[in-house]
Amino acid sequence: MEIIGLIAEYNPFHNGHLYQLEKIKELYPDSIIILVLNGYFLERGIPSIETKQEKTRLALKYGVDIVLEHPFIFGSNSADIFASSALELLNCLSVTKLVFGSESGDKSKLFRSAEAQLHEDFDKQLKSILDTGVNYPTALNKATGVDISEPNDLLGVAYIKSILKNNYKIDIEVIKRTNDYHDIKSNDVIVSASNIREKIKNNIDITKYIPEGNLVNINYNLFFTLLKYKIITDDNLDSYLSVDEGLDKRLKKVINKSNSLDELIKNTKTRRYTYNRLMRMMIHVLVGVKKTDKEIIEHNEYIRVLGLSNEGQKYINLIKKDLTLPIVSKFTSINSLIKDYEIKAAECYKLLTGIDVMKFEYQNKPLFKEQKKGNN
After folding, report:
1. Number of CB atoms found within 10 A of residue 108's CB
2. Beta-bridge mates of residue 249
3. Is 288 in contact with 344 (CB distance < 8 Å)?
4. Angle of helix 220-233 relative to helix 275-287, nearest 10 degrees?
5. What is the pLDDT of residue 134?
6. I need a labelling partner for 57 at 20 to 30 A (CA). Which of 37, 117, 131, 163 fits?
7. How far is CA 39 from the centre of its chain?
8. Cβ neighbours for 2, distance < 8 A, ≥ 6 positions apart
9. Cα-based distances in Å from 343 to 72, 215, 284
10. This prediction's pTM
C-alpha cells in the first residue's frame, strides 16, 4: 500500500486540486493520502481566501485521509524552509511517495537542479552571482545551469532537495499541470488559483472553477493600516524575520509615501528582492515574528492533525507508537513558540477577515469525515 504525501495551500481549493486527487486515486486506489496544509497565510505571505477549517473540510470530502497543519512559522517562509518542514512531517508519518504538480512535468530536470544546489560550493557560487545585483530566481538558474522559473517547478526542486539531503525514503511522482500559473485570463474549467483570485477581484463568477467552498474577503486596507502603524512606531524593525540589512531603513523612508500595501511593496522593491520575498517580510512584521525566535525554531516540534477520515484514523493508530514527533491532542495547552505564532497568525487573520477562526484553533480536536474508502 502506498502512503501518498501532498503539500498544498488551497487558495482556494479548485478543480485542479480535485483533478490531482482523482488522478492519485486512479493511480493508487488503495493508498492513504496525507496532506500537509498551509493555513491562514501562504508561502508568499498573502492571506488565504479560505479558512484553515474550510480547506480541511474540502480536503477530507474530496479524498484526503489525513490533514496535517503546516505551521505558520514554516509555511510563510522561503521555498527551502517551507519544503523542509513539510517533508519532515510527511516522513514522520512514513509517506512512501510525494505527489506534486509541475509546469514542466520533467522530473529529471528538477533533480538536476536539486543536485546542483546540494553541491558543497553552491552557496558560495550563488552569493557571488547575487552580489552582481540580479534577483534570486535569476541567480539560482545561473548557479545551477538549469532554467527553472515556474513556481511549482521551483517548489518541486525544494522538495527534492529536502528528500535527498535527509535521505528520506520517499519517491517522487510528478503530475503535469494542465494550466499556466501566470495565466489570469483563461476560462477553462481548470485554471490556476491566481486566475481565480483575479476573477474574484474583477467580480467574475467563479463557480465554474471550484467544486464548492466558502470564500472570505480580505480587508487589505486594514492590513496596510496595521502594518503602517507598526512600521512607523517600531524602532527595531530589523529584529523581525525577513527584514534584511537596510530594509528596515527603506521601510521607514517609504511608508509615508505609500497609500496601500501594493504601493508599499512597489516603493520598497529593488532588483534583488522579489514581490513574494517582500510580501513574506510584511506578514512577518505584522504578526511580529522575531529573528531570534526563528533561530531556535529549526524543526517541527509536534504533529497537529486538522482532519481525519476513517482510514486515516486507522493508519494513525497503526503507526502512532513509531512516530518521532508527538501528535498533540490539546493544541492550546502545549508550550511551544511554533504554537504561539500559529495563534498570533490566527488572531491576525481574524482581524483581516472578520471571521472568528479562534473557535477552530481552540477546539483541540480534528475534523472527522466518516467515509468508505473511495467514496466522497
Report:
1. 7
2. none
3. yes
4. 70
5. 85
6. 163
7. 8
8. 28, 30, 31, 32, 96, 97
9. 9, 21, 14
10. 0.93
